Amino acid sequence: MKRNIWGLNLQELETWVVGNGFPRFRAKQLRDYLYKRHIFHFDEMTQFSQKMRDWLKENGQIDKPVIISRAQSDDEKTIKLLLKLKDGSLVETVCMCHHYGNSICVSTQVGCAMGCIFCASTRKGLERNLTAGEILAQMYAFKELYDNKNHADLRELEKSYDRFRDTVRTLFKKVDQAADEAETRYLMETVREIEQEGRPFRYISAKELEDVRTKASLEATQGEIKACIAAERDFLKVLRELMEAGVLPFEEADFIANAAHREAHGQNGDIEAA
């Protein structure tokens, strides 16, 4: 009969591993695979010899509760899972997401002896206490759930950033072209004004040239800058949502935002100034 090793502590793993002829340190590696590296397939535990992996597959198993259903609040910050245990018992666990981290409420029993009339858990009374492995698995159920969600969210963040970057770079090209055209037009108008005043062109002042460039820059960026800001706002919205959901810590989100700003704006910082 295969032994369920999920929930075993280091001492229990050592007893099992050493008792079957393997070195004691393999138990610590097995514990790390289960509870730190979250690897649950014996073939993927490549620190072990092929002989030990074959033995694990023949003699061990990793039985964790199965997610039967999930319910989620409208703001997606509270999730309740219904889990089915190995013996068919059902338990609930809840995860509440906050800006400072996540809180998980775990079940410790099947049923309940309190007898509260408003609670469905008491209808059959207390059936049994959960094992340490069954309680621990509730936390890992959320970890696996959020890991999968986070990967999808991060892919969406990457797509959002690509759209933002491409939009901004396209706009920069349009702005540069429009600014050149506007500057030429305003410069010709300034020259005509100087000629009408009877001044030689070589006496055009630095302030007049700066006014020409300012007018050209403002004209070139009136429409494009709005689209640029909208693209950046959409990207930062996705980034902020991931940070608030706990997918990205604040420091990492801040680093990504700054890196995105530098890459997108690059050598075209004049748009930001405008």
3D structure, described in words:
This protein has helices spanning 10-19, 25-35, 50-59, 132-197, 206-221, 224-244, 250-265, 269-273; strands spanning 3-4, 60-61, 66-72, 78-84, 90-98, 101-105, 109-111, 126-129. The protein has 274 residues and is of the alpha+beta class. It has three domains: 3-61, DNA polymerase, domain 1 (Orthogonal Bundle), CATH 1.10.150; 66-130, no CATH class; 149-273, Topoisomerase I, Chain A, domain 4. Strands 3-4-5-6 form a four-stranded antiparallel beta sheet, with helices on one face. The protein has a two-stranded parallel sheet with strand order 1-2. A two-stranded antiparallel sheet has the order 7-8. The chain starts with a strand and ends with a helix.
Question: Largest beta sheet: what is the strand line-up?
Answer: 3-4-5-6
Strand tally is 8
Q: What CATH architecture of the largest domain do you see?
A: Orthogonal Bundle
Overall outline: elongated
How is the biggest beta sheet arranged? 4 strands, antiparallel
What is the mean pLDDT?
75
Question: What's the SSE pattern?
Answer: EHHHEEEEEEEHHHHH
* Integer-rounded radius of gyration: 32 Å
Terminal CA distance reads: 74 Å
Strand content: 5-15%
Helix share bin: 55-70%
- Name the structural class: alpha+beta
The fold-level CATH name of the largest domain is Topoisomerase I, Chain A, domain 4
CATH classification class of the largest domain: Mainly Alpha
As residue ranges, the low-confidence spans are 267-274
Number of helices: 8
Number of domains: 3
